[in-house]
Design brief:
Strand order of the largest sheet of chain A: 2-3-1-4
Number of domains of chain A: 1
Radius of gyration of chain A: 13 Å
Oligomer: homodimer
Structural class of chain A: alpha+beta
Strand content of chain A: 25-35%
CATH architecture of chain A: 2-Layer Sandwich
Helix content of chain A: 25-40%
CATH topology of chain A: Alpha-Beta Plaits
Distance between the termini of chain A: 19 Å
Chain lengths: 87, 87
C-alpha cells in the first residue's frame, strides 16, 4: 500500500523520529513522509515509533491508500526532496 | 475530491498561510490540512497561496484522492485537532 505519514512530536524527539521514518519511507518535507510499504513493515515502524513518542503529547497520522495511483500529487514551489535522488 | 495539503514555508509566512488554508480545509497537525474541496475552490486556494509564498524557498504539496473512502486514516497518540469539533 502507499502511505503518507505526518508526525508532530516534541522538539527533543524529532531527530530520532526523523531517523526512524527515513529507514522505511521517503522524506518529502518538514515532518512528512511518503512511500510504498507492506502491512508488516508499517506495523514494525509504528511499533518503534511508539517507543520514541510521548503518547500524551505527540501524534502520528498515517493516510493509507491501497495504490499510489489513487493519490495524485502536486507540488507548488520548491520540491524539498527530489525523490529521483533515491531511484 | 478529498485532499491532504502540507506546506513548508518560511517562518515569516507561516501565520498567513495557516489563516488562508483554514478557510478551505481542516487543520489536523503542524502544517498539515485535509478536507473535501472542489476543483475550483482548490484553484482559488492555490492562487492565493502562491501570492503568499516565496516560490524560491517555500513548498506546498497537495495529495488528491478522488474520494475520502480511498484514504484510510490512522492516528497514533494525540489527535491535535478533534475534527468532530467542526461537525
Amino acid at each position: 500500500m502507499y502511505i503518507i505519514l505526518v508526525y508532530d512530536v516534541g522538539e527533543k524527539r524529532v531527530a530520532k523520529m526523523l531517523r526512524l521514518c527515513r529507514q522505511y519511507l521517503n522524506w518529502i518535507q518538514n515532518s512528512v513522509f511518503e512511500g510504498e510499504i507492506t502491512d508488516s513493515k508499517l506495523k514494525e515502524l509504528l511499533h518503534k515509533a511508539k517507543k520514541i513518542m510521548d503518547r500524551q503529547e505527540d501524534s502520528i497520522i498515517v493516510f493509507k491508500s491501497r495504490e499510489q495511483k489513487w493519490l495524485e500529487k502536486d507540488i507548488i514551489g520548491q520540491e524539498k526532496n527530489k525523490l529521483d535522488t533515491f531511484l
